[in-house]
Specification:
single chain; alpha/beta; Rossmann fold; eight-stranded mixed β-sheet; three-stranded antiparallel β-sheet
């Protein structure tokens, strides 16, 4: 007779969104069926009209809106954001289309515990409008990256990437749709690694299974 290994404790997690929340939905659904050992304590948005808030509520997840308009500046907003997330016990912060640049004070409050997904093969095409820039540059390969968040915009250590071929007929919309499918695959995977204690940030390097990641894990689906 063999004994089964105990299930890992579910890591208290908050997901931050600004829009439709499709990555939030993918991660939350994985958590709901036990595929990713996290407890989504809160879905928070800076936009009252964010479509993802309704999706989160339909999944039984508490939601909150924290509007920047209610605060005099970014430091005041981020201080309130930190207080809210800490009050909900969040130990992992998942940025899922949260369209705000976070202050160093926020990042310090959750150092090594913030993940983000970016629709490019970082370090290429940091910032906005990545699909347009890929087409304008004539890139033959595009992709998506999950990375730790540091003070450098889209500059934290990359954990995992997925790549697609850019087709002659591709548009911004078609690239976005195909990239989003890859996001919904690799982002829950990275969250799962972190929640199980396999993934961590040491200094300025990502470590997976006790070894430094000299280059990102590649998962092309």
């Amino acid at each position: 007779m063999t004994s089964e290994s105990p299930a890992p404790a579910r890591l208290p997690t908050a997901i931050l969104i600004s829009g439709r929340g499709t990555n939030m939905q993918a991660i939350a659904q994985c958590a709901a069926r036990g595929a990713v050992p996290i407890d989504v304590r809160l879905v928070l948005s800076d936009q009252p009209a964010a479509g993802g808030l309704g999706i989160a509520a339909s999944l039984g997840i508490p939601t909150q809106v924290l509007s920047p308009r209610a605060f005099p500046d970014r430091p005041a907003y981020d201080a309130a954001l930190v207080e809210c997330l800490q009050r909900h016990g969040a130990q992992l912060i998942v940025l899922a289309g949260f369209m705000r640049i976070l202050t160093p004070a926020f990042i310090a409050a959750f150092a090594g515990r913030i993940l983000n997904v970016h629709p490019s093969l970082l370090p290429r095409h940091r910032g906005l409008h990545t699909h347009r820039r890929v087409l304008e540059a004539g890139d033959r390969v595009h992709g998506v990256s999950v990375h730790f968040v540091t003070e450098e915009l889209d500059g934290g250590p990359v954990v995992v990437q997925s790549r697609i071929e850019v087709r002659p007929e591709d548009t911004e919309a078609s690239l976005s749709a195909r990239i989003q499918q890859r996001e919904h695959s690799i982002y829950p995977r990275a969250v799962d690694w972190f929640a199980r204690g396999r993934l961590e940030l040491r200094g300025q390097r990502a470590w997976l299974d006790g070894r430094p990641l000299d280059s990102p894990v590649i998962d092309d689906g």
